[in-house]
Amino acid sequence: MLENVLKLIQKFSSIFFQVICVFLISVSCSTKTCSKDELLQNHPEVSQKKLESMDSQNMKTIKVYKFDGSKQCEKESGISIETMAKELGLIKIISSAKKHDGLMRTQVCGTPTGQCNVYEIFESDYPQAEKLGFKKWKND
Q: Angle at CA 136, nearest 5°, toward 133 and 137?
């Protein structure tokens, strides 16, 4: 009987250890961007299969944007990438870039340039970003 209890304890402690490891890795990757190679190297207890599961659930990214408000003939107009990034608050930004929306415009001073601040974020954060006025970037 004692042997069965010990086996049961070992089985649950192994499962508990795996759950704790996945949790710790998730927390560490929420504070910085982690590559799969980095995870496998620094956390040997994580299998490739678990990484793929994490990828499919938590690590998908999308790009969101807002127009920067810049106007033609006004060199210093528009909101910088850094300033607008503050609007995203606690949403983790993976990358950012200033891009044109790709549409043609008449060349008239004072009209919008079509420049956008584009941010790559985790897909799970999109509803929050959308509430802040960001839209999905579909031009890449």
A: 120
